[in-house]
Amino acid sequence: MNSSVVVGLQWGDEGKGKVSYLLSRGADAVVRFQGGANAGHTVVLDGRRLKFNILPAGSASGARPVIGAGCIVDVERLEGELSMLQSIGVQARPLISRFAGVVLSLHKDLDGSLEALRGKAIGTTRMGIGPAYADKCLRIGLRVGDLSRKAVLAEKLRLIGKFHNLPTGEDFERLSEAGGRLAQFVGDTTSYLVGLLKGGGRVVFEGAQGALLDLDYGTYPYVTSSHTLAGAASIGSGVPHTMLGDVVGVMKAYTTRVGGGPFPTEIDGGLAEIIRSSGAEYGTTTGRPRRVGWLDIPALRYACMLNGVSWLAVTKLDVLSNIDEVKVCVRYLCDGVEYESLAGLEDLSGARPVYEVFKGWRADASEWSEAVKGGWDMLPSNAREYLGFVEKMLGVGIGLVSVGEPVGYEVFKEDRYA
Ligand code: IMP
Questions:
Q1: Same domain (yes/no): 291, 176
Q2: Do both 170 and 274 map to the same domain?
């Protein structure tokens, strides 16, 4: 099948936006299938930083943006991002599933008040995503297709407001007007995408968040409220799973996490600060400083298994430059028992990482740019050793290494992925 599913293998922020953009060049459509504006996907083009929350970042390439039924739509952000695309000369004609959910102001308020109720906060993005999905499961959720039908919209807002005992008054005018403007883009994603794929078109599915934030398989309850795994691309876009192609697992050369929850390889102090500042590890959506740690093979092994990863895209390799020793967690020790995968572990809080230490590599921007021109063999040899170890440990090949933020700084190991 001429399609790729791009998913994150860590706790989000792996660089899926850039990878999706690279793979979307020349594609017919690029699809978000879960999550909403909690995601922050960035593409840096010609020095301009484009931040996408709800549209797929791959749409900056000109591929048609599709928002599947599995998503939660923030209509203001959606319209803002369409204008952003216009400002770079992309006249996007999105296709938005009529079944996609709509987030209301009260969902954002509830997101905040639920956090306050919890003993230990999850550290959500407060975009209202969890409460909006909860309403969907209760079968009272507002859907994109309802926005252009005034009577349905009014009735649904009444019911949602009554259930939560919160006002929805302001939302009616705002949503009804947006619904009128967006109606031309609302439709059936299944017929469109299946037709495209059957006709030989190319489709990229752009996942949001990461495997370890999956609602069921992640570090519950410190997770997001949707399924972040490759399998979700099928249900969330309405395309049969037999039509999904390669699964591209995106992983950062180290690990970050934003919000609460276990993080066995977390580091702090001066080294964490160096990595945080050279990697610009601050939330795209919230601006929060991200927690930083070493690469975690047991977690990645689990994520590769859950997603059935075909090949890996490693991002931000350059951020680890000029560090004398780079560590990789190869297993956990928990109550005297060794774990090689997070799969066997119920509670991560007692997991102690066992590290292998690698010699660091030194390279400045000009050396990285030479490496990019020269290809895989021009990467610093210690960095190649590090990457080779990752491939061996995970049993999956690396197809793409990305250094630096701007598009143009990436090394494809195998031509077929270029
Ligand atoms: P929510 O998705 O806003 O409910 O947040 C739940 C958890 O997922 C929090 O720890 C967030 O920081 C995290 N999260 C949600 N979206 C992203 C993302 O795009 N990148 C990284 N973390 C995320």
A1: no
A2: no
